[in-house]
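Dear support,

I submitted the protein below through the web form. The confirmation email said the job was done, but the results page showed an empty box. After a refresh the structure appeared. I'm attaching both so you can tell me whether what I see now is the final result or a partial one.
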Amino acid sequence: MKLLIVESPTKSKKLRQFLPGDFRIAASFGHVRDLPRSGGLSVQFADGHVTPTYETIERAHKAVRELQQLAKQADEILLATDPDREGEAIAWHVAVLLEGNASKCKRVTFNAITRKAVLAAIAAPRELDMGLVGAQQARRILDRVVGWVVSPTLSRGLHDKAARSAGRVQSVALRIVAEREREIAKHNTVDYFVLEATLSKRGTPPPFVARLIEWKGEALGHRLTDKTAAEGTAAWCQRQPWTVLGVDSREQQRNPPPPFVTATVQQAASVRLKFDPKRTMDLLQQLFENGHITYHRTDSVAVTPEAIDEARRVIADKFPTEFLPDKPVIHDTKAANTQEAHEAIRPTHPEKDQVDSGDAGKLYRLIWERFIASQMAPGRDHLTTIRVAVAKDGFQHPKHGSVPMGVFETKGKVLLFEGWRALTDDTTAELGKKTGTGKKKAKDDDSPQLPLVRAGDPLDCDKLNAVKRSTKAPPRYTQASLIKKLETEGVGRPSTYATIMSTIISRNYVAEKQRKLHATELGLKVTDFLVQRFVGNFIDLDFTARMEDRLDQVAAGQDNWEEVVTAASFHVRDLAQQAGLGHDPLSG
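What the results page shows now:
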């Protein structure tokens, strides 16, 4: 008998459709061992070695006993937990608990629950990858050390029992939100005026609106802050000759976005479907276990040639010829600290544009659209910029000589070819830039058409208004835009973002109001304390990103996890003692 051990009983039901009759399938029901939840640090540091004390998780006792009984009967044991560091660590913990039967264990991984992927995996078992196991142990122990050492320092330093939690990555996420809160509080709103002119060329419709961007050879910015002066400038400009200074007309190509990875699917689901990250991750797990999508904890945009061919067949079947590019589209991963171990998130059967109903079906459709769009032809837009001079040679600039008194500018865009945008939009492209929300579809975002004009053409100023505007504070983060920030900075791992979001909200460090994240007074106090006491350490973006690099090196077998954990742990211990924690929390 061959025993295949997976994490989820849902997954085992699907696998039975593919495996030969001599296989038994059993589930570990997730993690089986962990550091104790109470009773101490449960990690010993001695002579450069790190010794964690693991215990069987309470809910896992029954599953472990059943696995131990089945292991005795098995001739071969295949550990088929999820194909990532977490899954590798679970496989190792299971093997340890199987005691005398551990020698029968081999590791298998599959990126999709399909017949082809599963049979290929069980035909090529391997040994456990202790680099991956070490990286996961290092992360878990570092998280425990930071919580164990810093949390009591925090409560004692602030004299506030509510400030009871600090985490290696959650504290960085909180700091990002808190610093944005400070920026918003410091923001001083300034009113200013924008000059907007309605211009036309006789006999060449349509009229167009241009905005003053330069005055006397200098960029204008927000300098028109006086209403009387702005209106006086507008009245003066209306009496002057207006001339086309230059026209820039070019075609812009909009390449398709890559297929989703864990971070971007969480962002897109938040914007488009209003799912919080935890809901998205739960649905992704469901879709994966039912064989509908590839493994969903990934930060690689790589896709197999076979999957690309399937996507191209779908495009050829559903769209006119011009929507299928001559060659497959190859995407490059741009996020920091990327692990290229897996494929991007994609449908396992791209010919299916919908599965299931309800929220899982909505998320699948989002993934399907993004994957198919990633192989479609680029979109094309025609962009035109017109610069208009007021009193063309009316000012002598000390550096540039004769320049216009004022320069107005307008930009227009005409959609030439939708390409991939006929199917979807890049929901995550604009996150964090202005509004923190997704961009509208390109076909709804075209500027008014501009007239055909040339440099030197005279123009009529039909109307010129001084329009009041106000400077705006930077936008608050949403869960989606905060995830994008963490992803861009290389902080944490995409699979942990959902937990980070829920933790900072449940601890009352951050409040979510109308989908915007507000740092609470408690959150601001906690951040201020940690920044003062632990600057240059886990509270800093750069430090946390460098730690992710070290963990990646451990996973690749290029660094020793015990050395990484020891150095970081004792550094945090020293800072905690300087901050007022009298005892040595790592002793004994």
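Response: this is the final, complete result; the empty box was a page-load delay. The chain has 16 helices and 19 strands.
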